[in-house]
Amino acid sequence: MPHLAAPCVILNEPQLAENIGSVARAMLNFGLTDLRLVRPRDGWPQSRAWASASGAEAPLEAARVYGGLEDAIADLNLVFATTARPREALLPVLTPRDAALRLADRPPDHKAGLLFGGERAGLATGDIALCQAIITIPVSPLHTSLNLAQAVALNAYEWRLTQDDRPPPRFAPGPPPATGEALVGFYGQLESELDAAGFFHPPEKRETMVRNLRVMFGRAGLSDQEVRTLRGVVTALAKGRGRVLAKIAAAKATTPSGGPSPPLP
Length: 265
Hints:
CATH architecture of the largest domain: 3-Layer(aba) Sandwich
CATH class of the largest domain: Alpha Beta
Order of helices and strands: EHEHHEHEEHEHEHHHH
Radius of gyration: 34 Å
Strand content: 5-15%
């Protein structure tokens, strides 16, 4: 399959260099690197942007500056405007998830962009009219304000899910699970000692109890070392029980007939 490029991020008239740096950080978190700046208020580059990017320098180093929005989108086939106010533009209104799915469904040779307005005024109607759809983030009516980096992060995250929705590994790399042979040996030892201790009662429930124990240990994903440790635990408990029984037997042997029973150790 041809490689599908991530959408670029276009910041139209951004004001604070710190916000541009935070946007670069959010972009790189989710694999976006193409940053385009339209008439940044304080010019470009700005050292404060690098300071707030927390090491996400690739988008900043490659950032391109344009004198107008028309120039910034000139090579793009699909541009979505992110705004909470659709204004008069009669364009489809999408959530970030819907927008990401549409971007992922485009032909591989079509270039796409996500347009964000400046911190103070957002996007003008004329800016939105240059786009093919509007993205509105479904925030709570209790507080509808999002900063620039947050808006970029939400859209970049949804894009990322269309490319790789696998969760991170649940377990850190470690020793492989125990072999079936090791588990069966452990089960046999454990069940034998439980039989001797009278654990399986009543006898007709033994099969069910054995099955439940095996399922419990099987679900744990024990390693060979853990199985060996458990076998050592069972052995120690069995030896301790044997010593207790031996002491009781010895005490009974030395108690005169008809006398009181010796106390348990």
